[in-house]
Amino acid sequence: MEWVRGRAAVVVAVVLGLLAVMAACTRTDSGGRVSSSQAAVPARIPSGTGLPGGAVDVGFAADGSGFALLAECGKTRCVQRVAVLEKGARAWRLGTSPLPDVTGDLGITAGLVVLGPGRALITEGKWPPPERTWFTGDAGGSWREATTEPTGTTTTVPEGGALVENCSRPDEEGNGCARSRLVAVMPATGEYRILAHQPPLKGVVIPAGHIGARLYTYGLDPRSGNPALAVSEDRGKSWRTSAMPAGPKGWSMTVVTDGSVLYATHHGQLPDEDDVKNGLLAIGRSTDGGHTWEQVWKHRKGAEPRSILGAPIAAGDGSLTIHGEDGVWRSTDDGRSFSRSGGRGPQGWVTTTPLGYLWGDSFGAGRYRISADGVHWTTFDLGDGT
């Protein structure tokens, strides 16, 4: 199951329909964390440096197959392509692409949702909604065009499906959403269907991650008005509210796990630092499956990490890593304090997939790393850079 937002990303480099990494089925130490000697082996993804253009978006299914969106840009036109990796294949191949060429300075807005082996949905990424979509069920051999307009209801998010924020009314400025609902993208057809039982939250409600069969969504507590998570343990049939420590309203939360402990990063505009685009407001930690949360870190002016690009990495060795706008920050005390790890400036962004954490470079060079446990990584490259 994969998590995406139903409109083009507003925050640079942040994928707001983010996945929570699947916990590796491995032996743990006395603290409940994955033993480094027994850690999951990362997937071996072949490079595709012969693919034309640069990679725009990449996604994988649990069996190791995947899709990539590519853009080959000249002075006045970008040709958009689709690359396909089949299970066990040693090389990527080009599939058919339903996407039109992009001219002028419109930019690349398309997004990718992998719905299982050989199945994917491409979203147009235009605003306001509804936007066009294209679905393939035959590994890029053919595509069926539709839109993000829901075509019915569903009681659950099926295995392999995606939980998506669907904006039903843009705000007065026309740049954001005033009213939204959660919908499921059906893995067999790519159709959007309204989730019959919505989370008990108010405001704009968006996905925050999933761990096993548990689904997490972010919104506001209807009683206190504070940021809160709603949790479903049955793929969206029912929900319970998970209260968070009081804090400022943000944009989203991302929930991940190291195999035993949950972490929730709270993303939003920092109250006193306008030079930060992708602010990190707070970090919560839960040891009881998200029933209760402790706020282990809170933004203080000038204290790093001030920002977060994508998802945090809750690793099997107990560390927590944040990729920010001014470098990488690592904690070895449950997210209570951080030290710099590496150089300054953007050092990549992180999302999660059914295979684990996926890191991509910050400058469009096509360099990627993937890890099942946040400790052991393999590298692959996509695109010839044209």
Search tags:
single chain; 5-stranded antiparallel β-sheet; mainly beta; 5-stranded mixed β-sheet; Neuraminidase; disordered N terminus; 386 residues; 41% strand; 30 strands
Show the helix and strand layout.
Blueprint: E1 2-4, E2 54-60, E3 66-73, E4 77-85, E5 93-95, E6 102-103, E7 111-116, E8 119-123, E9 132-136, E10 144-147, E11 153-154, E12 162-170, E13 177-185, E14 192-195, E15 202-211, E16 214-220, E17 227-232, E18 240-243, E19 252-257, E20 262-267, E21 280-286, E22 294-298, E23 313-314, E24 320-324, E25 327-331, E26 339-340, E27 349-353, E28 356-360, E29 367-371, E30 378-381
Parallel strand pairs: 1-12, 11-14
Antiparallel strand pairs: 2-3, 3-4, 4-5, 4-6, 7-8, 8-9, 9-10, 12-13, 13-14, 15-16, 16-17, 17-18, 19-20, 20-21, 21-22, 23-24, 24-25, 25-26, 27-28, 28-29, 29-30
